[in-house]
Amino acid sequence: MRVCPGALGYFLDQWKECLLLALQHHFQEHLVSHPRTDQDQPCLASEASQQWYAGWYAVCEWRSPEQLKDLLDLELREGGEAHPQILQRCRDAIRYSVKTGHPLFFNQLYAGMDPYSLVGRFITEAINPSLYTYEVAPVFLLTEEAVLQKMIEIIGWQEGGDGIFSPGGSVSNMYAVNVARYHHCPDVKVLGLSALPRLVMFTSQECHYSVAKAAAFLGIGTNNVYVIPSDKRGKMIPAEFEKQVQRGALPFMVNATAGTTVLGAFDPLEEIADICERHNLWMHVDACWGGGALMSKKHRYLLQGIHRANSVAWNPHKMLMAGLQCCAFMVRDKTNLLQRCHSAQASYLFQQDKFYDVSYDTGDKSIQCSRKPDAFKFWLMWKAIGTKGLEERVDRALAMARYLAEEIKKRDGFRLVMEPEYTNVCFWYIPPSLRDMADGPDVCTTPYLQVAPVVKERMMKKGSMMVGYQPHGDKANFFRQIIISPQVSREDMDFLLDQIHSLGMDL
Amino acid sequence: MRVCPGALGYFLDQWKECLLLALQHHFQEHLVSHPRTDQDQPCLASEASQQWYAGWYAVCEWRSPEQLKDLLDLELREGGEAHPQILQRCRDAIRYSVKTGHPLFFNQLYAGMDPYSLVGRFITEAINPSLYTYEVAPVFLLTEEAVLQKMIEIIGWQEGGDGIFSPGGSVSNMYAVNVARYHHCPDVKVLGLSALPRLVMFTSQECHYSVAKAAAFLGIGTNNVYVIPSDKRGKMIPAEFEKQVQRGALPFMVNATAGTTVLGAFDPLEEIADICERHNLWMHVDACWGGGALMSKKHRYLLQGIHRANSVAWNPHKMLMAGLQCCAFMVRDKTNLLQRCHSAQASYLFQQDKFYDVSYDTGDKSIQCSRKPDAFKFWLMWKAIGTKGLEERVDRALAMARYLAEEIKKRDGFRLVMEPEYTNVCFWYIPPSLRDMADGPDVCTTPYLQVAPVVKERMMKKGSMMVGYQPHGDKANFFRQIIISPQVSREDMDFLLDQIHSLGMDL
């Protein structure tokens, strides 16, 4: 017997620098103390030290696609490269990547970092499992089941339910459409839609774009998604929904959104549930973003009525910081609907003559074959900080959003689009040259359209922070500030507003 | 300015033990020298050292679902746990997970480990990017593009093509169905299938089960998948295909399989392409498993004609060992079909007034919103070992499969199901008590049905190796041995056959 116990140490030594560099992107303790004003910058005489400074603190080090192609040397060749060159490839990849864990990254509906989740991901990447059967992924199927059952309990389905982790909220919403139509007409699996009357579904105008993608992909057709108007706060108007249900064809489901993408609005779930009961519709709640509020005793009223839904999509990789991807799709059904709707019973994988209880081979519930263990990192983090720790995180993010909204109201040249209910804080920045026009309804029109894109360009080229913007309905481009991470402080909120002003005051 | 440069070191110190443990699962240099006979076992007097031995060398440490639930303490509670407890959770998760990188893990269509891919995954997990837009994932969108273009070149589409990485080969096959039907009837995206005549598609009886899942999920219906008989070698019979095309309804695509799941068979692509041309059908090749052979000048003849396909699915996480998941879906089309077919143009994400060339914001080609950077690890590995290194890996795996097949022919009590073309080596083990019956056609029937499940149970409880089995058509359960990793040696092949005999000789 020959054993080489030094092999692991050798591996870690070889790649330690890269791992450290990569961890800098995530483990931001040193970045929490990043400089917030130009006066804070250290005195860096040489160009080299200035570069170091920029790379260390910037949210991103912007390069155009053409520049970056040159820098990375993307070409794949016949021969391999030596170790020092590969190390340089790793350094470059890390350097020019956006630091999504940076406290000033506010660009998407995920941000920040949790060290437990990260350790969980390192473990699962090293183990490289795939979740079809208990025999190859025992730990990861059981932890998935435990997480799903706890999430189902928190939703409030007292009789229990079923679920599966999926590669993204968009796919979860597709699951919802498929399960809803199968529930309505089980023949669809075998006969297809061409054997059925025209099916129609409902969603609000503020819903995520994946609802349209789902309708197209699943053969429903985007025209058969009836779009319900929302009120000024971005919430579906129930009376309009009921009107649309009576328009004919075969209505089978509604997608209610709990936490819309732009405004962070919550559809009125109780009223939607009443209408679904009256008309025998499947009620799906897309809580991919807003589901986090369920963890908070203080804020879960936003999703009042979610326990009446037939299915829920909820992404812990967003507000709860479980790391991309971590997306649960859950159904209240207890009759093995997921399995019946999606199974194909491959005999080479789901053998029925195995020596253990094959009800633990849950892979056939999924539309995937190989599937990543996305629940494990969340399970580990939950074990480490507890339900209470998750609750505190959510409460803190909502309090911070409230602080930012109040600051915006105090400052000249900033205007809230609406009072935030969740952590989407939407606002315009109005440069001094345009402020005379700012009191009328014109704030929504052309001159303002240019402000946010230019400010965004300048912040990215400086690397000082990243925040999203978009036009919305009749409203010109406004910033959408998303708050998630407990590493974000009030000083960061002040810095954000100062930066926007300093980057845009000349416009 | 306050900087805490010790933070990273602290992080690594805290979690080093876990990372090392997890890496043991992947970095198997010490396992290449695992003991292959009972005589090889070290003399371990104490129970503790015996446990250490078992955990160190076993492919898996089997526990039933009930036992494992107790061991893992799955419950999620109000309060969090202290660091030592969380470390123990990690140790347990690693210990009871199957070592998919172990040289004796032959259970699935992936195995082994590549250190470059693993480093790539550690980097991307730390950076936590999502691939919708260039602004948030510049490095990862460019490396994805570079990998896709190289794969397209290798397929042989001289005019180029387009592609996207997807979360699994099953999803890639779904992309194929959606793109094919959109190409055939672009109205389907808006109007849905209810506005169209009944669409039908074709695949062989040996295809992957995801084709049926795709037909169900996309609203085609499993009845509208016409199943073409295969020959004895598992290859689609072209004449039967052409017969089916003439059966009526609206045929729009065929799924040809290059590397079937059980037998490793390759459908005759040239002849299928001829039929597709005659009947104006979309030709999709599911080369998720067999695509690896394209890297080898010696073996790429197996996919002769793939350059005539309209779309190809190819998973480098399988034969090329890029780590789960790494799944490319590619189309020959150059008219932006992927974008047209799948886009929803969300204005909050795919703003058209950005300051850079937004054609690099490729996320709207996808059915996902958040999406993992699955191409990067493959790009890094390819850079490190070159096209030549990938070719050698494939050639070595096929040579090893040939060695195993020859060994099987030499040994009493073993019988090949067929000569392998790829690295699926399918065979029966016939215990001495049944050998008298083995010469007739009865080898396919009842008494043999029990052998493989019992041998599998015994090998898992011992932890000595993992190999799959299944019944197939009229054939009773046989073993399906998959060879991938360059860490697998001839001695491992001999060990496999010895083990099966020693575990099953009393049956």
Can you walk me through this structure?
- Chains A, B: Keywords: Decarboxylase, Lyase, Pyridoxal phosphate.
- Chains A, B: One of its GO terms (cellular component) is cytoplasm.
- Chains A, B: It holds the Pfam family Pyridoxal_deC.
- Chains A, B: Homodimer.
- The structure is a homodimer of 507-residue chains.
- By secondary structure, chain A is of the alpha/beta class.
- Chain A folds into 3 domains: 5-125, Aspartate Aminotransferase, domain 1 (Alpha-Beta Complex), CATH 3.90.1150; 130-372, Aspartate Aminotransferase, domain 2 (3-Layer(aba) Sandwich); 386-504, Alpha-Beta Complex (Aspartate Aminotransferase, domain 1), CATH 3.90.1150.
- Helix content of chain A is 41%, strand content 12%.
- In chain A, strands 2-8-7-6-5-3-4 form a 7-stranded mixed β-sheet, with helices on both faces.
- In chain A, helix 6 runs antiparallel to helix 14 (374-410).
- The longest helix of chain A is centred in the C-terminal third of the chain and has 37 residues, at 374-410.
- Chain A is globular.
- Mean pLDDT of chain A is 89; it is low at 1-7, 28-46 and 48-54.
- At the A-B interface, helix 1, helix 4, helix 5, helix 6 and helix 7 of A face helix 1, helix 3, helix 4, helix 5 and helix 6 of B.
